[in-house]
Hints:
Elements: H1 2-18, H2 22-48, H3 55-75, H4 78-108
Helix pairs in contact: 2-3, 3-4
Amino acid sequence: MTELFNNLASYLNDVFIIKFDGWVVLGFVAQGFFTMRFVVQWIASERARRSVIPVAFWFFSIGGGALLLVYALYRRDPVFIAGQALGLLVYVRNLYFIVISGRQGSADN
């Protein structure tokens, strides 16, 4: 049991102390953006008493996705790179639709 604890402590020290650098900080900031997108969606839905996706959701998605893509490129992780790059396309496209529909809505009035 002591060996298991020592191995776990050594692993956690390696991951969270020894390898902690600016890139890890960037990764945590990016993950924070991703977390915030769900927080703003949850708050907006609670206020509306129905499922709502506010525009801020897409801005946090783009911010988090872009930062995580930079982090993935640095880490040279092809699975992570592909996932974030494709996700960014979806986030930007959704924001584009919001902007276009807002312009069309104001042109109709």
